[in-house]
Amino acid sequence: VLARRAIELEPRNGLNLTQLGTRLRLARRYAESVEVCRRAYDILGTSIPMTNRANAELAWHGDRAEVVRTLEEIPEAQRGIPYGSVRMMLLFALGDDEGVLAAATHLPGPSAGGRITAYFTGRVRELAGDMAGAQRDYTAAVGPGEKVCADCPAMAQAHAQLALIYAALGRKDDARASAR
């Protein structure tokens, strides 16, 4: 209700539209979410509303090709860190292992938007049977994961990823502590 009221007051506020698009997706109102994200993109011209639209379209249709097409609509000049980290996560959800590894190489650091890059690449390598590569990635993910959790103690997603990293490395007590 508050998000809709904010848009009534400022109909050209792209940030409010982006937030409303996310809320609509979470409420499973996918058609509205996609349309609101399109409007936000037209106003802001950034990758964030488009990646939100891709998330909504995945939840709505489950069409992997549509998600990739939506991401590809974002001009190269507008593809920042949010684009790269969301692309990596969406490709992970789609089971596109090569896409995840390629997207990870374009991210500027070990974490982006609270997402620990090496966690995702470790999972891909583990699922592909490359246990040595997975262990290498998980080990590399510990430092960035601990930093994100220390910098953003309320970010549950980061704590959950760190717990999974610890578990993959056999550090059960650390995994339990991070998961709490």
Low-confidence stretches: none
User: How many β-strand runs?
Assistant: 2
Order of helices and strands: HHHHHHHEEHHHH
Oligomer: single chain
Average pLDDT score: 83
Helix amount:
over 70%
The DSSP helix count reads 11
Q: What is the percentage of strand-forming residues?
A: under 5%
Q: Ends: how far apart? A: 32 Å
Structural class: mainly alpha
Shape: globular
Strands side by side in the biggest sheet: 1-2
**Major sheet, described briefly?**
2 strands, antiparallel
Radius of gyration: 17 Å
List the helices and strands and how they pair.
Elements (H helix, E strand, L loop, with lengths): L1 H8 L4 H13 L3 H15 L2 H15 L2 H9 L8 H14 L2 H9 L5 E2 L2 E2 H11 L3 H21 L4 H13 L3 H8 L1
Antiparallel strand pairs: 1-2
Helix pairs in contact: 1-2, 2-3, 2-4, 3-4, 4-5, 4-6, 5-6, 6-7, 7-8, 8-9, 9-10, 10-11
